Amino acid sequence: MKHIEVVAAIIVKDDKYLCVQRPWNKYNYISEKFEFPGGKIEHEEPKIDAIKREILEELKIDINVIEESVTVNHEYPDFKMTMYSFICDANDYNFELTEHIDYKWLKKEELDTLDWAAADIPIVEKLMEK
Ligand SMILES: Nc1nc2c([nH]c(=O)n2[C@@H]2O[C@H](COP(=O)(O)OP(=O)(O)OP(=O)(O)O)[C@@H](O)[C@H]2O)c(=O)[nH]1
């Protein structure tokens, strides 16, 4: 089974977290699910470079990485993934959605109201227990 390595940014602003919704996808279990923005690590790319690059590509903002958070190992029906998450902030939060179809800024208590990609649930749980 294919194994991918992914980085995800937990972007915080005034105690709210940025949650973004994926577009339609052939795999129904990730299609239109909410996630933390990010993407695949390129060959031999440092994780911090990968997350800054992905957020610049996807949201057109320059983030600051504050600390590494949960690492999730998840097996979907068609691929396995390891996802490294990072708590981040930004000096300018004026982002543009270039790939995602919607977004929400939610307080930690509200995070479980969204339909999350399964791999993100451990991150949501960790944030909610803070
Ligand atoms: N970025 C991101 N991907 C996630 C999360 N949760 C989760 O299950 N995934 C899955 O991990 C994979 C990440 O790939 P991606 O498509 O976002 O990454 P990418 O932009 O580098 O991909 P591409 O180069 O194929 O377009 C997707 O299959 C996605 O559904 C998450 O919180 N963030």
TrEMBL record:
Its cofactor is Mg(2+). It holds the Pfam family NUDIX_4. It comes from the Bacteria. The keyword Metal-binding applies. The keyword Magnesium applies. Residues 1-129 form the Nudix hydrolase domain. InterPro entries: MutT-like, MutY_C, NUDIX_hydrolase-like_dom_sf, NUDIX_hydrolase_dom. GO terms for molecular function: 8-oxo-7,8-dihydrodeoxyguanosine triphosphate pyrophosphatase activity; 8-oxo-7,8-dihydroguanosine triphosphate pyrophosphatase activity; 8-oxo-dGDP phosphatase activity; 8-oxo-GDP phosphatase activity; metal ion binding. It is an enzyme of class 3 (hydrolase). Keywords: DNA damage, DNA repair, DNA replication, Hydrolase, Magnesium, Metal-binding, Mutator protein. GO terms for biological process: DNA repair; DNA replication. Its EC number is 3.6.1.55. It catalyses: 8-oxo-GTP + H2O = 8-oxo-GMP + diphosphate + H(+); 8-oxo-dGTP + H2O = 8-oxo-dGMP + diphosphate + H(+). Belongs to the Nudix hydrolase family. This is 8-oxo-dGTP diphosphatase. It comes from Thiospirochaeta perfilievii.
